[in-house]
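Kindly review this protein for my students:
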Amino acid sequence: MIPTREIADWLADLRLEDIPALAVERATASILDTLGVTLPGLTEPPARIAAQLAASDMAAPVASQVGTKLRTSMEWAAFINGIAAHALDYDDVSYAVIGHPSVVVLPAVLAVAEATGASGASVLTAYVGGVEVMAKVARALGEQHYLVGWHMTATAGCFASAAAAAKLLGLGPSGIQAALGIAASSAAGLQVNFGTMTKPYHAGHAGRCGVNAARLAAAGFTASPDVFDGSRGFLAAYGADPARAAVGLALGQPLEFEAPGLGIKRYPCCYGTHRALDGILSLVEQHGLSGADVAHAEVSAPPGELQPLIYPRPQSGLEGKFSMQYALAAAVVDGAVGLGTFEDDMVGRAVVQSLLPRIDVRPFAPGSPEAAGGTAGGDGEVRVAVQTHDGRRLQERVRYARGAPENPVGMAEVVAKFRDCAAGRLTDDQVSQAVEQVRSLRDADDLTVLLDALIVAPVGAVGR
C-alpha cells in the first residue's frame, strides 16, 4: 500500500535543485495561472462570504487574502484564497486527481510562506512537493473513489496542503507523518455539491485543514504514523482499489509536473466540457454557425467524463458550469466561452434555453474503445455533431483539449489568460510586475513584492 514514512522521507529531502527544469517551468506557469483566476474569483459570492467571515473573526494578521489588503491567520488565508481560486472553475486540472491540485496547494503554500517569510525557492519546492503528494495519493485511490461520489480535490487535497505546509514549516519526517495523519481525518468533499458554492469550498477546506494539520504537528500533536495502510486506514475506508493502491507511490518517478503534467483551462467551467467545447467552437468558426442554424446537436463522450455534468437544464451560472448542454449552447449562440458566459442572466437567456432540449449528450458504450477516456479526459475522444436546419451534418472529433498536457499551451498563452483575468482589476504596471515576480520566483527573498502587485485597485480606478 502507501507507507506514510515514504512520503515523509521523500518530502523532507526534496530540494529545488533536485527538481527538473521542465517541472519548475510548468509549476511556474501553474502558479501564474492560479493567481490569475483568483482575481475575478474575489467578487464571486462564495469568496465574498468567506472573506467577510475571516475579517469578522479578526484572527492574527499574518497572511493575506490574494488581491486585497485583508490579513488574517494562515488557516483563514488558505481557506479564502482556495475558494476564490476555484470559484470560477477556471483553474488547472490533473488526470490523476480527476480534479484541481493548484487551488488547494498554492493557497496553503502562500499562507505559510508569507507568515514565515519563506523564500521564493522554498515556495516552489513546497508547491511542487504538495502537488506530487496529491497526485500520487489520488493515483492510489483510483478512479473508483471518484465514481462513487467523492471529490478528490478535497479528499486527496488535504494531504497535499498538509505536506506542503509541513515542508515550509521545516518539519522532519516524523512531523510530516503526523501532519498527514491529522489531515486524513479532515478529508471530505462530495460531488453532490457541484454547481453550488460548496464546490469551491472543497478547495478552501482542503487547504485550511492541511495548514492546520501541519501547525498542529509542529506543536507536537500526534496521529497514526501509518494512516494510509490497513483495513481501517485511509485507502480502505475511502474505497481505494487494493490492486491499484498496491502499486505504491513512485514519488518523483517522474514528477507529476513532468509527466503527464497539469492541464491549463481555456474555459471557466468543468473540464468535462472542454473537449466538446473545442469541437463545437471549431464548427462555429469553420461554418459560421449560430443558434438559429442548429436543428439538433449531439455530443458523445466517455462515461466518466460526463459524470460531473449533472445539470442538463441549468438555472444559474454555477449550474451552467456543470452542464454540457449549456456550455455548447452558449458557445453556438455567442461564438465564444469566457468569464461572462456563466453569469446567471446569461444562462437564463431565452435563445439559450430554447436550444438546450436540442442538444443530446450520450456516453459511449462501456467497454468500447471510445469509452476509454477517464473522468479527466485523458484518453479516448469526444465527438460533436450538428444537424442544421438546411440539412447539413457537421462533425468534429477531439482527442485532446487545447491546454491538456498532450496539447499544451505555452507561457505566452498563460500570461495572456492572466492579463484577461486581471483586466479592470490590476493596472498594466501591476500585471507586468506580477508576471515578472512569478517568473523570477526562485530568486525572491519572500513574497512581499508579488502579493503587493496583486492588490486589486478600487472599482473605476484602473485605466485601460
Observations:
- DSSP finds 21 helices and six strands in the chain.
